[in-house]
Design goal:
Order of helices and strands: HHEEHHHHHHHH
Largest sheet: 2 strands, antiparallel
Number of helices: 10
Shape: globular
Radius of gyration: 22 Å
Low-confidence stretches: none
Helix content: over 70%
Structural class: mainly alpha
Number of strands: 2
Length: about 210
Amino acid sequence: MKNNIIKEFEIFLNIVRHSNHMFRQYCLLYENNKQRLSLLEEIAYHFFYDVQCMWIECVFLGMCKLTDRAKQFKNKNMTIDYWVKALDKELTGPEKEKIEASITICIEKRDKVIKARDKVIAHIDYEVAIGKNALGKIEKKEIEKFYSNIEIILDILSSKLGRGAAPLRFAAQKDADDLIESLKKTIHYDHIFESTTKKAWEECKKWKYKDA
């Protein structure tokens, strides 16, 4: 029985990690570097803008799904709430207090994106569509705080299953960096192709998007 619970928890942990991964990847391409953003806009403005919009929706959906109620009508949701309730009897008083404090922070951040989920992503709300109802906004640091508190909760729950800590690993920066490097080469392709020397690419690195 316990082995089944651990397997299910690991499934959920991977879902959370992927959600965090999507947010971190978004930041690498769109938030951390103004030159990088300018490069994307110069290469294919509309394409990368569309990707950005879809990515934002994905990040907001991820935050909401992780913090949904454990049960809605007859359906069970695999969420933070689900796992806290499932392991409630295993938790000490101080652990429950720590989890409750982190959940409060997570819900506070969720409340900043739930309107977008309900009125733009899942539906086309009339008032929002005609500009009569604003959605509000959330900063990158707030989403980082959301995931850091999710990690605190998961660490406690994971320890109750004898797994130890449950870090939200993120090791995909190379993918984003490789994409940007390829796009930088694309801009200067003709010059590199005509030269056929490594020196040409070294010169290109000094150009417009060298720090992207």
